[in-house]
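User: Can you predict the 3D structure for this chain?
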Amino acid sequence: MVEFETIKAEEIKFGRNNFIEISKKKATTDNGDVEFLSIARGFYLPDGQKGYKSSITLPGDKEKRNQIADLIKKM
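Assistant: Here is the predicted structure, written as structure tokens:
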């Protein structure tokens, strides 16, 4: 069994009803813990709750995250 914990989450609102949520998460299994980043695109429902369209998981390794950030900045 895998348990997920959100360590920290922040969002950037865009458009009329959309957001990008970037969160640091931890997955706990019988074999140990793994930290990773999750980037999700979502929207707000009429009652104010969040709905999600899609997400991507990035490695917890800082060097890899820096490489990804550099590529995004170059686009």
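The two ends are 39 Å apart (CA to CA). Residues 62-74 form the longest helix (13 residues).
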